[in-house]
Structure formats: C-alpha cells, structure tokens
Amino acid sequence: MDPTQVAVAQLAITVAEPDANRQAAADAVAEAAAAGARLVVLPELCDSGYVFDAADPAAEARGLAAPAADSATLRQWHELAARHRLVIVGGFCELGADGRLYNSAALVDASGTRAVYRKAHLWDSEKLVFTPGDAALPTVDTEFGRVAVMVCYDLEFPEWTRLAALDGADLIAAPVNWPGYSWPAGERPAEVVKAQAAAAANGVFVAVADRCRTERGVSWISGSLIASPEGYTLAGPVLADRPAVLTAACDLPRARDKRVSARNDLLADRRPELYAWAPDKRVAAATAHWAARFVANGTSYPDFQATMARITRWDDWCREWGRTAQHYE
Asked: Which of 91, 115, 259, 312 is deepest in the core (most CB within 10 A)?
C-alpha cells in the first residue's frame, strides 16, 4: 500500500461567523485534496469559533450549536468528503439531545458521519459552556487505516492516547485551539512537545490542526503539525499566525509494528499489573493517629471521617492536614 497523504488545515476562524468559517474549511479541504490528501484534519470548534461572549458564553455558544444529526457543518463535510474522495475530521459545536452543549469532533467520509466524539477533558472556561463527554474515544476503520479522534486537551493525557494505541489506532487526529503564550527561546511550545511525545510513546502518527487569527483578544500557538510514530515532525509545527495546509506522506500500517529494538515492543513490554494505583498506607496511619487526637478534643468522629475520606494520596494528605488540623483543633 502506498503511503497516505495526511493534511492538517490551520484556519483563520472568527467566532459567531459560521458561514465564513465553513467557507474557510471548504477552501482548505479543496487545497488539501489538490495535494493528494486522503485525510484532512480541521481545528477545534471550527464552525462556531472559540472565544464566546464573556458576559454569557453559554448563551452565545448555544446560538451557534446544532445537533450532529442536523448540523450544517457535518452536512458540508459529507459533501466535501464525497466530492474529493477523502476523510475529514474536525471540531464543531454540538447541541446534544439532552439539551447540553458539547465540544465535539466528527469523522466524516463519503458515506456520511462515521463517528461523533465529545471532548472528555475540558480546558479552563470551556467548563462554563460545555458538558464533558463520558464515552470512549472512537477509533474508526477507513480505507487507508485506523483513525482515532480526540480534541485538544485530551491529547495531553497519556492514559487517553494510550487507549487509542491499545485500540489499534494508526493515527490520532486532534482538532485543537491552543491558546497562545510565550515560550523560552530555542524551545517549542509544550503542547507541541506533548503531541510529539504522544506519538512516540504510543508508536502512532499524530495529526494536529490548530487555528490562527486573534479572537476577542486571544491569540493562538498556531502549532499545526504531523508527527511520526517515532515522535519526529513530518510537517510543521507552523508556529505563525497565518492559515496553512500541511501535508505529509504517512505509511499508516507502519504504526502497527510497535517494536523499538530487537527485544522491545512498546505495547508488549507493558506491565499493567504494576500500574494499578493503591492507597498509600501512610495516609491510613496518619488519619488514624489524628482521628484519636481530634476525638479526644471533642470532635465528632463521623464529621472528621467524612472530611478525610476523600484524601487517599500522601501529598494531598499533607496539604490538607494544615487546614483540617486548624479547623478541628
């Protein structure tokens, strides 16, 4: 099988301008198709924009959201996928059947919407607008390989990216909106490093589509990239405030070989029986010690027990001890 041309489209998105945003996406998909792309990744929330009205962000987002089954954005992607004979992964603002808002992504091909994923790990003010998804991330079989879908901050959780690898993903497609900041000279933004690390740690390709254009005072890293299973960049990161379409030839089946030496395999060498977290015995001993002291001072034991029941890690116990001791002493 010949390598698959994968594209990531860094778009200039404007909040509350869905028609213009969809046109920008259509133009980028056409450009990627002309370069031979079979998979195109678009940014997070690329129909609605991201920086909602600070006075009532949920209200503005709700006005821009639509159910997946009746989304003008997903209908457009279906038409584009059929016209250009490719697969599109992108982020959209979803109104769920439960009336809640979701920061979602869809994988769409010529047959229609193959998967809808709701972002599980919400970033900062997203928590004021969206409900986190509670379903497993999808890994979809396509004509050219298995594609997992996640959104932005999800990519920073090793447990989540590892699940994609364990599910047989060849490539992780990640629509993102990485807010801008300054990083040390000679370094790359931490988000770029984490995307490359996710690729290397799991032996998968990672395709990240970021955005550009300052939106209501918020700038962006604009770090669109495609990383190899070794963690090296095949295209990008752009790191410039401009639209861009990056492509790279990705031999997706190569990601199924997890061998990293003659005697090592990224997945076969795992020892999950050692990874299960267990409560620290120091916590139980310290809690027992202080419980006796507080009870002797007249503290209600059930009250104390309820307070301490949520503390299971030693460093958390040490931080909590001062506040708890001051309260009960």
From this structure: 91
